[in-house]
Amino acid sequence: MSKIEELVERAKQLKEKGLTTGEIADELNISRDTAIWLLTSSRTERPPSDIYVELKSINGSSFRLREMARILADMVLDAGDADVIVGVATSGIPVATMVAEEIGCELSIYYPKKLKWDGEESHARGTFSENFANVSGKACVIVDDIITTGKTIHEVAESIRKRGGNVLAAAVIVDKRSHDDVEGIPVLSVLKVFRI
């Protein structure tokens, strides 16, 4: 079975479990367009331009994830004095928690609208968890596992600003866009993917 066939099967299984298209995209570390293609395409049409990144070898080990968090924390320290680390649900929360602990910051959790997204048009909105730190008036760093398009980072940054917070940077394990920033927000990444 090819990797594409495996991804098709995984996407279908996740859909059968009740996950939205946005949640499937997040779970598989792919764009929403790629998730739609996996779920609906007959595979005769050309797939969206995307890169599949599997992080099981890191995310499946608390030791390895801790080491990745230490690397990200070191990078975050170069961005300035952060008050709050904002973990992006779902995949960014474990590493964000460890980054916050590593540098002694508060932790906030953001649920992006993509997790609620399940169609071409969606009026879903992202939200902060009220059970974690408030970002109002604080210097924040957004932490996630992967940037695919940058839309989620932009969404989180806008939500932080609307609450009166300041965004210092975004820190990720993998940047599939290979850009230094997302609309002016510096991106700190352990790995950058370059298309040749």
UniProtKB/TrEMBL annotation:
CDD domains: PRTases_typeI. Keywords: DNA-binding, Transcription, Transcription regulation. Gene3D superfamilies: 3.40.50.2020. Pfam families: Pribosyltran (PF00156). HAMAP family: GfcR (MF_01214). Contains an N-terminal DNA-binding winged helix-turn-helix domain and a C-terminal regulatory domain (or effector binding domain) resembling phosphoribosyltransferase (PRT) domain. Belongs to the purine/pyrimidine phosphoribosyltransferase family. GfcR subfamily. This is Transcriptional regulator GfcR. It comes from Geoglobus acetivorans. The gene is gfcR.
